[in-house]
């Protein structure tokens, strides 16, 4: 009797793709009586540097606040590291650097970091090393013992960034971190962002400076609270036949359906 043919090997299973670090569907935010974000849908891939680019007032800070869970009146789906944005377990996993540096002016840079390290629960024995590492990451060791109140704007922003790095967050959300920095410092910070991403951190970085676009692996282009495009800088340039992301942005604006400058709420008293 013939032996039955061996059962066909099941096709090798694809390794499961990492879930997105940020997953938004139909994300809408109302501020005052205006819809300042309107039906945004996008994903941020883990371990990438994603740029959130758009002109002043386009909704970047609102989107960032929604992601870190500090924005009211958010509707739609917004998951961060697999959990609803703002949920308690995310607090230690998400680092957030606001536009205005949040440091104590009457403490030195090092004392600020030591204080936040204690708040974050870093054991006393590990604190000094964690603080020194964060100061080195943001290139502030030479100002470590200056009062934060005597630091320049860019230096204070870097203290805030160092605070966010203390907790070694999985997702680091930065609102315009390079504003007011000189080109050398800007380059150094972008190098730091890519080093962090190479070690697995996901970075979502807002900027209204289009020439920073090419420093990002992926871009979210926003305007008037809507998402114009979500793609790599190269794909955006190719799709629009543009030499720069700035030109691509302008072409996307020209080809987008005419949007009202604002999205007033209709039908509400
Ligand atoms: N409380 C509020 N009520 C109504 N509209 C508001 C309120 N706060 C902000 N806005 C509007 O929401 C829109 C988005 O603001 P947001 O700060 O998110 O923009 P942005 O892109 O971060 O701007 P910038 O680059 O200047 O910081 C703006 O048009 C702003 O005027």
Automatic annotation (TrEMBL):
Database matches in InterPro entries: AAA+_ATPase (IPR003593), ABC_transporter-like_ATP-bd (IPR003439), ABC_transporter-like_CS (IPR017871), P-loop_NTPase (IPR027417)
Record's keyword terms, sorted: ATP-binding, Nucleotide-binding
Chain residue ranges for the region called Disordered: 1-22
Biased composition (Pro residues): 1-19
SUPFAM superfamilies found in the cross-reference section: P-loop containing nucleoside triphosphate hydrolases
Source organism superkingdom: Bacteria
ABC transporter domain: residues covered: 22-249
Lineage: Bacteria, Bacillati, Actinomycetota, Actinomycetes, Kitasatosporales
MF terms (GO), sorted A to Z: ATP binding; ATP hydrolysis activity
Protein name from the UniProt record: ABC-2 type transport system ATP-binding protein
């Amino acid at each position: 009797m013939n032996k039955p043919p061996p059962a066909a090997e099941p096709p090798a299973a694809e390794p499961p793709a990492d879930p997105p670090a940020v997953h938004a569907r139909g994300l809408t935010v109302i501020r005052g009586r205006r819809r300042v974000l309107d039906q945004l849908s996008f994903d941020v891939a883990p371990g990438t540097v994603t740029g959130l680019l758009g002109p002043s007032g386009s909704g970047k800070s609102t989107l960032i606040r929604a992601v870190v869970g500090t924005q009211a009146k958010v509707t739609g789906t917004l998951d961060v590291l697999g959990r609803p944005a703002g949920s308690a377990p995310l607090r230690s996993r998400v680092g957030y650097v606001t536009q205005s540096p949040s440091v104590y002016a009457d403490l030195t840079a090092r004392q600020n970091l030591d204080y936040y390290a204690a708040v974050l629960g870093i054991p006393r024995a590990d604190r000094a090393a964690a603080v020194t590492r964060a100061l080195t990451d943001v290139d502030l060791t030479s100002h470590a013992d200056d009062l934060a109140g005597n630091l320049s704007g860019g230096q204070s922003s870097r203290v805030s960034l160092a605070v966010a790095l203390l907790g070694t967050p999985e997702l680091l959300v930065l609102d315009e971190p390079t504003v007011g920095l000189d080109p050398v410092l800007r380059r150094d910070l972008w190098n730091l962002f890519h080093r962090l991403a190479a070690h697995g951190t996901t970075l979502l970085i807002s900027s209204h400076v289009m020439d920073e676009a090419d420093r990002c692996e992926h871009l979210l282009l926003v305007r008037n609270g809507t998402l114009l495009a979500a793609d790599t800088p190269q794909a955006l340039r190719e799709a629009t036949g543009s030499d720069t992301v700035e030109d691509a942005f302008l072409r996307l604006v020209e080809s987008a359906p005419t949007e009202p400058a604002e999205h007033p709420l209709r039908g509400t008293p």
